[in-house]
Design a protein that fits this description.
By secondary structure, this protein is of the alpha/beta class. About 40% of the residues lie in helices and about 20% in strands. The longest helix has about 35 residues. The protein is globular, with a radius of gyration of 30 Å.
């Protein structure tokens, strides 16, 4: 059976059982073969006809360059010929592909600026235009009584998962139409289907080539000290590089120092002659060119059959956000022909940064080890002689590999032989297990449990507020209770949003809407799938295995030294970059201005030419609106969001303000509860800083003093209370952390004292943190 189809079926069954308790995804996977293109095999016409005439949701898996879209288009023409009771809609990811397909015989193009041809039997549109088509179909059925069979064919359907975070409206519209059966028949087409594990499929069809070989003769993984610097060293006299670097910012940095013959291709360059030649003619003309540096736009709906003889493909992975799906899509865009092939394709990865191991006892770090090597599932520590001075016993171990931190333990023993997690003073290396490579289903299950636990904790907070209000109702009138309830609703919204922000990556799937915490399971799956893919960055063995399986080529692993090249500096992270100080000063810190920036609401700020121009420039710059949205999602009110931005020159300062806001929001909730028992307060976050805040509040509230000196003794008392409240906690706050938290939570009384008076107003963050501007 088809390897990809069976894997989707297996994963989908488990994931649907986790989310929906219906562990059924599809009865079977059907496999069909072809030579060069799907319709080379005449029997495949009946397979496609069967899919077009079926109903429900079907998944079609076929390699890049096999003619998936063209094949369905040919059979769709046959299906609709002479009929008026059927409509076929092709939804494609890009405007360029929509224009290409829309120019085909019998196809009506529908993109931005076009009117929908309501009499057309075959329509090709971008994802964002599916909503208009869906509305027309609903109007036909509900208002005009016309019942047409509507078939939706989604090309590059993996984007339904991968692009949910930045194409929300278009993709949600398509998913809504699929799930509500506006389209009686939906066919999902892709070459990389592993992100498509949430649908309930009528069937999965996989087409496999009997003779197709990848365009490249050789595939290798290359580890370098600095990925961007390595790209600069590629010898353009010998190689015509076609480079995938999925970051416009990093491409912009590289273009400043690369040869003028290197051409940039991003979503802003789709109208250039180079891109049009690739999209329309499947050709890279080397005349006047020395190479191409591209984002993923070159991996969407294009095939390259004519390219320079010395062309080589490179995938530049600069951080842990690796996507094997994207690598496969990119590499398969080049086609092998009788006269053309790619000599070599290279995946460029940064060498693993030196890891660090900290050994701790109950009082803190007692030893740090630096000679650490990560080899797939093993972490090898060589400089163990530093441990000889430690007493026998058990110690905590914190292993930092890049951004990843692993917690473990070790034994110090006198006598015996050093082994896993144990050192016996013999100078031998010690090994620790690296985190295992997890399946996508395991990651989904873990994340779903985290979300459900988070939901239960936030519900407890809401229940506490309701019980407090019930007690207050006995002594207050209706009007006073109405005001209190409104204040509680606002507080709960802020606390929930602040709590959501503490969930790290998972915050993207959570929202607070109409008084309820909502978890989007599709985005949760996307985030889990991204975490799954990211593991390949840390596991060379698994990456090699996966690439060999997908590409059908052996993969070599080599290293290259670029330390003799001095890395250049990336541009400074100024959030007001490109905007004048006049524009910064003009920002009005209120809700209406926030809405005019974020949602293009028609307000007083955009009614004048000057106001409209200033708002437009901020929107165009992008960073300000993105940071404002992030702050608001973290529970910061709209006016304070803008005031924070107005007082910050860099993102680091914005983060400081955001963290200060969270302290105040937590203060408000603690003050509302008025508890002194730590166990009675539901914690949404297990982070040290949040647990410490609760411990400090309960300890100081129970003592009822008017002020406190910030002494070492007070800090030690807080730490003792923390250990008692959280005896199993792996991290213990330091005296310095305790004193800093005390200063954040309470208003000052002189230099080294605080009043027993919490910061409770949002705008007090500007007393806590100074502005970057006068």
């Amino acid at each position: 059976m088809g390897m990809k189809g069976e894997r989707v079926k297996k994963d989908a069954s488990v994931i649907r059982d986790i989310f929906y308790k219906d562990g059924y995804a599809c009865k079977k996977v059907e496999e069909y073969q072809y030579d060069t293109y799907i319709l080379d095999n005449k029997a495949n016409e009946q397979v496609l006809d069967g899919m077009l005439n079926d109903e429900g949701i079907q998944l079609c898996i076929s390699p890049t360059g096999s003619g998936k879209t063209a094949s369905f288009l040919m059979r769709a023409r046959e299906l609709v010929a002479g009929r008026h009771d059927i409509m076929v809609v092709f939804a494609v990811p890009t405007r360029t592909v929509a224009i290409q397909v829309g120019n085909e015989k019998d196809v009506s193009r529908f993109i931005g600026g076009d009117d929908l041809n309501k009499n057309a039997s075959i329509i090709c549109c971008t994802y964002e235009k599916v909503d208009d088509v869906k509305s027309w179909i609903v109007h036909l059925k509900n208002d005009l009584g016309v019942d047409k069979k509507c078939i939706l064919i989604i090309d590059e359907c993996h984007n339904l998962a991968n692009q949910q975070l930045f194409r929300k409206d278009g993709i949600r519209t398509m998913i809504h139409g699929i799930e509500k059966k506006v389209f009686q028949n939906t066919i999902l087409i892709t070459a990389t289907p592993y992100a498509m594990a949430l649908f309930h499929y009528n069937r999965i069809i996989e087409f496999m080539s009997r003779q197709k070989k990848p365009a490249m003769d050789k595939l290798r993984i290359l580890f370098v000290d600095d990925v961007l610097e390595y790209i600069k060293t590629i010898n353009l006299s010998e190689v015509f590089p076609i480079i995938l670097l999925n970051s416009k910012k990093k491409i912009g940095y590289l273009m400043q120092s690369l040869d003028d013959g290197i051409v940039r291709l991003t979503n802003e360059d789709k109208e250039t002659a180079v891109y049009q030649d690739i999209a329309e003619n499947s050709k890279i003309d080397s005349k006047g060119l020395k190479g191409i540096l591209s984002t993923s736009v070159i991996g969407e709906g294009v095939n390259i059959v004519d390219y320079p003889d010395n062309a080589q493909m490179f995938v530049a992975v600069t951080d842990r956000n690796i996507s094997v799906d994207l690598i496969e899509q990119f590499l398969n865009r080049a086609r092998r022909t009788a006269s053309k092939s790619i000599k070599c394709a290279t995946i460029i990865l940064p060498k693993m940064k030196e890891a660090k191991v900290d050994i701790s006892d109950a009082n803190g770090i007692v030893c740090s080890l630096s000679q650490v090597e990560v080899v797939d599932d093993v972490i090898l520590v060589s400089d163990t002689d530093k441990l000889d001075s430690l007493n026998d016993g058990i110690y905590k171990v914190s292993i930092q590999v890049g951004r990843k931190i692993l917690e473990d333990h070790m034994y110090m023993e006198t006598g015996g032989t050093t082994r896993d997690n144990a050192y016996c003073r013999d100078g031998k290396p010690m090994m620790f297990p690296n985190s295992p490579f997890k399946s996508v289903t395991d990651i989904v299950s873990e994340n779903y449990k985290k979300i459900m636990c988070f939901h239960d904790i936030m519900q407890k907070k809401l229940d506490i507020l309701n019980s407090i209000r019930a007690e207050e109702e006995k002594v207050n009138g209706d009007y006073a209770m109405w005001q209190i309830e409104l204040m509680d609703q606002k507080l709960m919204a802020q606390v929930t949003r602040a709590a959501i922000d503490s969930m790290g990556e998972l915050k993207e799937c959570l929202s607070y809407e109409d008084g309820k915490l909502v978890a989007d399971k599709r985005i949760l799956f996307l985030l889990s799938y991204q975490m799954f893919q990211r593991q390949y960055f840390f596991s060379t063995r698994e990456l090699k295995k996966e690439l060999e399986q997908r590409m059908g080529l052996p993969v070599d692993i080599i290293e290259n030294n670029t330390k003799n090249v001095r890395p250049g500096k990336m541009s400074i992270d100024e959030i007001w970059f490109g905007l004048t100080d006049e524009i910064r000063k003009s920002v009005a810190c209120d809700d209406a201005y926030f809405d005019s920036l974020m949602y293009e609401h028609y307000s007083v700020y955009v009614r004048t030419p000057d106001g409209n121009e200033m708002v437009g420039k901020i929107r165009e710059q992008g960073t300000i609106t993105s940071l404002a949205e992030d702050l608001y999602k973290a529970g910061v009110s709209k006016g304070i969001c803008l005031r924070i931005l107005k007082n910050s020159s860099k993102k680091a300062k914005v983060t400081k303000y955001k963290n200060a806001c969270k302290v105040i929001i937590n203060n408000q909730m603690l003050d509302r509860m008025k508890y002194t028992d730590i166990g009675s307060i539901p914690l949404y976050s297990k982070q040290l800083k949040d647990k410490l805040q609760v411990v400090i509040y309960c300890l100081l509230t129970s003592r009822k003093q008017t002020c406190y000196k910030l002494t070492d003794t007070l800090a030690e008392e807080v730490i003792a209370a923390y250990k008692k409240a959280f005896p199993s906690s792996k991290k213990i706050p330091t005296e310095r952390q305790v004193k800093m938290k005390l200063k954040q939570m309470y208003k000052p009384k002189g230099k080294d004292s605080i009043r027993n008076e919490l910061y409770l107003k949002e705008d007090e963050i500007f007393k806590m943190i100074k502005s970057d501007f006068k």
